[in-house]
Amino acid sequence: MNSLVKKATSQNQPSIGKLRVVHAEMDAENAPRSTSTSANGSAPRLQITAEPSMIVAKDVTKSYRRHKTSVAVLKGVDFSAEHGKITAIVGQSGSGKSTLLHLLGTLDRPDSGEIWFADERIDNLSSRKRDAFRNQQLGMIFQFYHLLPELTLLENIIAPAMIGQSVFSYLRNRSKIIERAKALSEMVGLSHRLNHKPNELSGGEMQRTAIARALITDPKLLLADEPTGNLDQESGQSILQLLKNLNQETGLTIVMVTHDENIAQQCDSLIRLKGGKVERLK
Amino acid sequence: MYKLLLCWRYLRTRWIALASIVSVTLGVATLIVVNSVMDGFTSQMQDRMHGILSDLVVETRASNGISEPNWYIDRINKRLGSDVEGVTTVVTLPAMMTFHHNGNAHTQQINLIGIDKKTYASVSDFSKYLLHPDNKQQLDFLLKQGGYAPERDALQPSGWEYRTRVEQLKKDRLSEMERWRELQAKIAIEQQNQVAKDAEALGQSTSKTSSEPDTSEPGTSETDSIARTPEVTSPLEAAPSPEATDLDEMLKGPSTPLVQSPNKGRLFDASKEQRTGIVLGIGIGSVRGRDAEGQVKDYFFIRPGDDVSVAFPNAGTPPRAIDEQFTVVDFYESKMSEYDATFAFVPIEMLQRSRGMIDPISQQGAVTSIQIKLAKGADLSKCRDILREEFPPSESYVQVNSWRDTQGPLLAAVQLETTILNILLFMIIAVAGFGILATFFMIVVEKTRDIGVLKSLGAPGTGIASIFLGYGVLLGTVGSGVGVICGLLFVWNINEIARVLEWITGREVFDPTVYYFDSIPTIVHPLMLVWVSIGSVIIAVLASVLPSIRAARMHPVEALRYE
Asked: What's this model's pTM, rounded to 2 decimal places?
């Protein structure tokens, strides 16, 4: 373990291979199947299926009430994010980028229209099911990282796992969860600061922690709300590189809202929100 | 799991919330202190009230009493069975006691109680309140040599030591007085002789010169004294002669003519003999006050060994007063001033005999009340009701009362006071609850973003509500726990604290002359601690319900946007 930490810190190279092994072990625990494929490190868990779109928004509208006047933010948005791709959403401030992302992440309900996630309509689920959906299927990262200041990095990373499980099943799986959290933190290059509180970290480190937290429940989709918006050029680029590596090595689908045209250009597909409507650029 | 973790972390990092819980702590501590002190006072008071009273009393107001006490005792034993632990018979009378102090006679109203010294101790705590250690074992109405409550300087000397010394003093003073009177008498005789001589001389001289009687008298007295003697001695010396023989007799045996007749010719020697014993309440024979330095001091104007006379009515109609002499053989101190200042105990046989309560045929003495001690665990009011049923007022002339009935109003008042204080103090804790409510709302607002984050991570509303509810429980537990500890420390050191307060304020917090206690009595009931803790935790939880609901209902998007 010590050598691994050293390796991770010296190279600052995400060791995703190791992470995948941990994934596979957890899967093997949950649903016994052959681990031989995972042992050679070349079997991605997320198989690309016939369904090309991971998440789809159909004719979604959303308006906000502000001082008795209703402001329409989204006026019939159609959106889809392809499986295993990075999709960037750009647009001016107030164009509804974050609103769309929140709707995709079931944090809010659309006024009309539908949102589908892998053959399942998710916008009209009960709040309990939506909570479970966010916890199990979705990872989210934010511009301001939104780590819990009272918890250490490790605790922040395993928080979704704690939320998703009862006290007893958490205590039973605790060692495995912690092992996975350590592997993730190694991957994002933070394994040496696990016992620090968030306010002792730099912005880039906090965002790395947020990414590790988003991945702890092994989601299929990562929603990123301006993940580099609060970082300098260099840190932003390294975060983007981390997301790209994740995408390439595990096939994680990423939907990212960004201001930065430079970053947006590096993504697989790019859409622009303007006047409440979608414009596909790439 | 995240709920517990976050509760715990919030508790450790949000000290301001602990400040809001201080009011709960103080409320709990105050409740515990007040309850303990009130319970202490109440139970001391009950002990004292109950002290020399038996559990149940079957009494009559008839002045000649119950003439067949054994018939009643049999029926009581039959009805109550094993609930009866002890029974005794008592004669209670209003009486007047007279004692001498500093040469003056003082009269005081008392309740004279004739008790059976063998059985009375079995129905009440009477014996443990007596001052002499031997009497605590078994009262015998005999004056002891000494050793009455050796720790009380004010009471020393007492007993025979005191009585013999006083009698010796009396005797000395009497003989001194007699000597003085004898001297006076002698001087008087001499003077009269002188006068007689003078008169004789004057008689002789008046025949010569009747115009100068005043001036001649002093000058002529000496010269004329011898000449007149034979004439005057016969009337003048005849008068002092019986007085002189009386004096001689009295010098030999001073009290002969007074005491001789009732004792059939035997002399009563007060320095060696005692009269019938009487046990007085300490409040009858002493006063408690402060000396110049502020120290609490007792002053005894009657001591064991003194004689007192008591007048009480006999059993006839109309009653006539009988006067009897008693020797104080002991004091009792039940620390219940009402009893200590009025009750005096004498042997029951003596009262029955002198009041004429003994049946001339059966030789059985009548009594005014039958006192019953119940076995431990017996239901006081139930036994009382059984006896009331057994002796209904319409058929018999006895009344059945428990000791609680006699002190009922006072006990009820104390009970009411405790209840009201408890309600008021719980209101204080409820006010503290509003403080918690406000603080919790503040914390929820402060944690808005974290709530949004938790929701985005998939935490359900109930989970978030339970974080804050759990936080409320934790705070309530910590607050009431600290309160319980503070309260107990306060209660255990209450007398030291009272002393410090006295020292700081210069005012007396606890005045032993008022309360008859040396220190503030306290009793801590574990059940009371449990109830107070549970109550305050419930208030803390109730106060955190509203903020928790608000947190649970928070919209995740708005919460995440919150700056």
From this structure: 0.65
